[in-house]
Specification:
2 helices; binds zinc ion; alpha+beta
Length: 121
């Protein structure tokens, strides 16, 4: 298994109505780590092109997150942002998102199948 770690920063603003600490419009300097995995390398001998991962994240940089389509139906919390970022890159299995220097949220993609026995009648 190969793994690539892509690290970057995003500057973005958000507003979380009803939240004591994030209820007003304010910004964060997010530190983002995206962990990508592949059992086999692509035809260029890579897990993923890191530049293309960074390119996908530009849609969030210097933006008001509440205005983006991803956050029309859900609050732009760090938890939701971490999941949305993970879902943008098919090889990503985990995203760590530092919202402040003391608060880090991580999202791990569910990859295991689950089987449940049918109920007994
Ligand atoms: Zn905030």
């Amino acid at each position: 298994m190969y793994e690539v770690r892509v690290e970057t920063h995003l500057e973005a603003a958000h507003q979380l109505p009803g939240c004591d600490c994030c209820g007003g419009i304010h910004g964060h300097s997010y530190k983002v780590t995206i962990l990508c995995r592949a059992r086999h390398l692509n035809d260029r001998g890579m897990v993923v092109d890191g530049d293309k991962v960074l390119e996908k994240l530009k849609r969030f940089d210097h933006k008001f997150l509440n205005d983006l389509p991803e956050f029309k139906e859900q609050m732009p919390t760090a938890e939701n942002l971490a999941r949305v970022i993970c879902e943008l890159e098919p090889t990503a299995w985990k995203v760590e998102l530092w919202e402040t220097n003391w608060l880090c949220i991580s999202y791990t993609r569910e990859t295991e199948a689950e089987y449940r026995h049918p109920p007994k009648i």
